[in-house]
Amino acid sequence: MLNIRSYNLGPLQTNAYLLTGADPGRGVIIDPGANPAALLRAAQGMEIEAVLLTHAHFDHIAGLDEIRRAKKCPVYLHTLESEWLENPKLNGSLMWPDATPAITTEPAEYDLADGQVLKLLGLTFRVMHTPGHSPGSVSFLCGNDLFSGDVLFKLGVGRTDLPGGRERDLIDSIRNKLYRLDEEVRVFPGHGPRTTIGFERQRNPYVPML
């Protein structure tokens, strides 16, 4: 069973997640935002098997260096954004100087691709390529828990006006991939409260079911 703890980090209130399975001494982190002290305290004494990035916008990677230094853990990111960690123009940190310094960090150790299966924490994580908010956006499905990054929110969707964003791709990702999951799947987004696939199918005003 997956245990999920959420931490609201940085000026854009990004949701970072600390996941554990049957062994409480082993964890996975998703999207470490800025000022991750609370996240690191929760992970103290824990071996972090991986940092999974739903995408490489600055608010989802701002705490990555601190996590890497403390935990010496590998990072996973979709190949379409492989250059973004090193490039503050691509990761958007140059666009909001009032919110963040320019962010550069080392490349990810592992590439992600659609349909890939990761074995972490003794559990299976399926990688779903869900572009639209950014070209390399992915969602991670573990059992009935989905980590959707900035693709699908409660009663909302990710913006598509940033570099590499495309509204048509976002709608396709939600309607033809995420909405095809079971309605009881819980959605843990990159911002805001959690929701379910069934709720969004029925209520989301931006991507109604056809």
UniProtKB/TrEMBL annotation:
Domain of life: Bacteria
Cofactor: Zn(2+)
CDD domains in the cross-refs: metallo-hydrolase-like_MBL-fold
Domain Metallo-beta-lactamase, first and last residues per copy: 13-191
Keywords for this protein: Hydrolase, Metal-binding, Zinc
Keyword Cytoplasm set for record: no
Xref: SMART domains: Lactamase_B
Reaction(s) catalysed (UniProt annotation): 3',5'-cyclic CMP + H2O = CMP + H(+); 3',5'-cyclic UMP + H2O = UMP + H(+)
A Pfam family this chain is assigned to: Lactamase_B
InterPro entries named in the record: MBL_Glyoxalase_II (IPR051453), Metallo-B-lactamas (IPR001279), RibonucZ/Hydroxyglut_hydro (IPR036866)
GO MF, one annotated term: metal ion binding
Signal peptide location: none
Main function: Counteracts the endogenous Pycsar antiviral defense system. Phosphodiesterase that enables metal-dependent hydrolysis of host cyclic nucleotide Pycsar defense signals such as cCMP and cUMP.
Protein name: Metal-binding protein
